[in-house]
Specification:
acid-amino acid ligase activity; Folylpolyglutamate synthase; Mur_ligase_C_dom_sf
């Protein structure tokens, strides 16, 4: 899959997330190009109520282990 196709998929996920959130003006949606940028953004916006991570289970698992290092201990 080409890079532009991956970004287009992310933008579709963004639109779906906004639709699910309804008219909540407090929701902020950001599409970033790499995992490290996304995780930095999450850390900088620690007051976020929810985070949507899309991709493979491997990617989601890796992101969760960085967000909550104690998660794998449970």
């Amino acid at each position: 899959m080409e890079y532009r196709d991956l970004i287009a998929r992310c933008q579709k996920n963004e639109a779906a997330w906004k639709q699910l959130q309804g008219n909540d003006k407090c929701s902020k949606v950001t599409v970033l190009e790499c995992v490290s940028d996304a995780l930095s953004c999450i850390k900088q916006n620690g007051n976020s109520k929810s985070v949507l991570i899309t991709g493979s289970l491997h990617l989601v698992g890796a992101a969760l282990s960085i967000i909550d290092p104690n998660l794998s201990e449970n």
